């Protein structure tokens, strides 16, 4: 028996759980410390490893760092999000690709999975792609925390205008925008309450 292949993975200790969840916060303010391109590549590669529908991997991440790219993005955010978007070291446009199925011969070679989606109406493609991309956004947040980064997901932006500015000529569609960097904990507000277990979960 291959004992390594069948070995049970050790759970994270409390320090690891604190890093990813208990002490993980939504940040609006960040320090001026830069985030390297190598770190962003590692982050994206980790986020890609999580499960998606038929391993379709429809998520597309655009890491906005340059002054030129920020000048395009910031005016497309809602007024309350512009200052923090401009100041964050990196902004991440999380999009989904309506043509995600074209990669299925590579990412799901066991069967002709492309045929499951090719020719489907955009509404169906958007449902599948946005659902899996939302998962990938969650993986991105968790991976960022694991790498010592902090994240501030935001609502409040003109998705159609972002699509036009960054994704013209493609079938990519904006799902959300996040700020990324090394968070300024001094700027955090007290954590808002969470629901008790019985209010949102049940064991049956």
TrEMBL record:
Short name of any one Pfam family annotated for the protein: Nitroreductase
Gene3D superfamilies assigned: NADH Oxidase
Domain of life: Bacteria
Entries under InterPro entries matching the protein: Nitroreductase, Nitroreductase-like, Nitroreductase_HadB/RutE
Location of the Nitroreductase domain: 27-182
Signal peptide coordinates: none
UniProt GO molecular function: oxidoreductase activity
Protein name per its UniProtKB record: 3-hydroxypropanoate dehydrogenase
